[in-house]
Amino acid sequence: MFQKILTSALFAGFCAGLLAAALQFVFVQPVLLHAELYEGGDLVHFGGEAVSATPELPGFNPMRDGLSLLFSALIYVGYGLILVGAMALAAERGVTITARSGLIWGLAGFIVVHFAPAASLPPEVPGVAYTDLTLRQIWWWGTVIATAAGLGLIAFGRGWGAWGAAVILLLAPHVIGAPHPESFTGPVPPELASLFASRALAVGMAAWAMLGLFAGHFWASDDNAQA
């Protein structure tokens, strides 16, 4: 069982990580580099002349882009281990895992790790106002755990008691509230910050969908090979 979890997670996580890195290079990195020009003071969008919304950005950087590719693969392998581990627990209780059902597992993972935390603490582009990192990390981890438990109760719980507890778990982090700065003083245009947040979420959703699809495929392929 452990070997099956490990191989499925490695293959699925590596493939999803490569896809995530490619999407980030095309859609997220240009916005990130653009924001860094405002963060460093090379561009100013208030108190000066109007500047182009499409500035010349740094090109391919072997060290930076290579490390981004490596870290993306490693992160999604880690996500894959968690996702396939959850699939294994469900399979032991009679749940059938396929590539199609894996897609749903992947989208659930996206909701847990990206979408639910972003509802109160959206992805932050460089140069925006921020508050204490430790407080944000504590809130993020609490939200991820509560959301995962809530979705688990909705998917596998029985009765109104379980579903009611799920709703409470899903809402609690947002009712408590994420830590936010006391004032907004960042130099980055809000249009750029919103574009970064939306593209980061879109890339995350695509990568998690592929992670679930690949994980379900490799898990089912191993079952078929053993049959």
TrEMBL record:
NCBIfam families: CbtA. The chain crosses the membrane at residues 67-90, 102-118, 138-156, 163-180, 200-220. This is Cobalt transporter. Keywords: Membrane, Transmembrane, Transmembrane helix. The keyword Membrane applies. Signal peptide: none annotated. It comes from the Bacteria.
